[in-house]
Amino acid sequence: MNFEVIVIGSGIGGLTAAALLARYNQRVLVCESHAIAGGAAHSFTRRGFTFDSGPSFYCGLGKQRPSLNPLRQVLDVLGESLEVVSYDPLGHYHFPEGSFPVYCDAQRYREAVAKITPQGAKELAQFEQRLLSVYNCLKDIPTIALRADWRLIPLLLTNYLPTLIKMLPQLGVIQGSVGRIMDEEVRDPWVRRLIDLECFLLSGLKAQGTVAPEVAFMLGERTRAGVEYPIGGSGAIVAALVRGLQNWGGELQLNAHVEQILVAGGQAVGVRLHNGEVIKAPVVISNATLWDTYTKLLR
Ligand SMILES: Cc1cc2nc3c(=O)[nH]c(=O)nc-3n(C[C@H](O)[C@H](O)[C@H](O)COP(=O)(O)OP(=O)(O)OC[C@H]3O[C@@H](n4cnc5c(N)ncnc54)[C@H](O)[C@@H]3O)c2cc1C
Fold first, then answer.
1. Residue that finishes a domain, picked among 197, 225, 253
2. What ipTM does the predicted assembly reach?
3. Is residue 230 part of a domain?
4. Which of these, 25, 111, 120, 245, is most buried using a 10 Å CB contact count?
5. Closest residue to atom 41 of ligand 1, CA basis
């Protein structure tokens, strides 16, 4: 079979790219090293129990429309759906002072904080307000419409000019860290620790190292759409993407580790698998890390 595109890796990113290309009539092959599709989001079973290997918090995957979750928009395009369960609180944080329920509902969240620190709850409300103003601008530009090259500028100017104008007063915040807003709005040490923790769970860094739009989106979506869990876990999302890929004629090959991206005249022309098999295609998309792609696959 001749392929027009080879995608290296069946993580959520690789499957999304592959399934969309298949949907729009490209002959696509996904080569995945592992025996299970899904990358960081794959599920596995042991003794009859299913485990998620990574992600577990999702917003906007269910039937509620409009959804700002680009994955939901991709599944819509593929004609796939997921059954999800909403839940609140999404979990508990365990502090030395006691357990804290993390409610999606902003009012209940603040009430839970007020039980520990009434002044902190007021400061938190100001902090949230600052971030929600950012969210209210950003949410009008769908993530899926964005691109990573210079064409982003004409695209934004042509399609989203009113939103860009609305965003102008927020530019400082959009480019800044959560820590800056926290320093301006929150003195209470317990709430500062809570914000650091929320940032750490999202980005792996405390408030000073976390970009404001990321937390603005998390807070905004958590409040607007609530948190959901797909029945079947993250594996159900992967299965829906694989179904979408295959229903639109794409192929997935597991246990197919790509050893090298073949290049001729400065252009990708295919891949060589670990078992020596060569598969040709004029376009190769890598879902492997940048580091692996440039230092190992493009040797
Ligand atoms: C513990 C944990 C918790 C998380 N929690 C959340 C959460 O709650 N909510 C959320 O939205 N996100 C969460 N995330 C993030 C989310 O899981 C990832 O952002 C997402 O799954 C990454 O997908 P990806 O396609 O970019 O990459 P990956 O999932 O890394 O996929 C890359 C794929 O490429 C394959 N590959 C690499 N090299 C080759 C090669 N040479 N040949 C063939 N195949 C190759 C790999 O095997 C892999 O399958 C979490 C992540 C982790 C690890």
1. 225
2. 0.97
3. no
4. 245
5. 258
**What's the pLDDT band for 85 if we cut at 50, 70, 90?**
very high
- Would you state the pLDDT for residue 298? 96
Q: Smallest Cα–Cα separation from 259: which of 277, 275, 278, 272? A: 272
CB 8 less than 6 A from any atom of ligand 1: yes
Residue 163 and residue 200 in one domain: yes
Average pLDDT over residues 74-101: 93
Select from 192, 225, 258 the last residue of a domain: 225
Same domain, 93 and 186: yes
Q: 214 CB less than 6 Å from ligand 1?
A: no
| Domain that includes residue 265, residue range | 5-54+235-297
Q: Looking at residue 105, what is its pLDDT?
A: 92
Q: Which residues pair with 28 in a beta bridge?
A: 5
> Is 24 close to ligand 1, i.e. is its CB under 6 Å away?
no
pLDDT tens, residue by residue, 185-213: 999 999 999 999 999 999 999 999 999 99
- Cβ of residue 220 lying under 6 Å from some atom of ligand 1: no
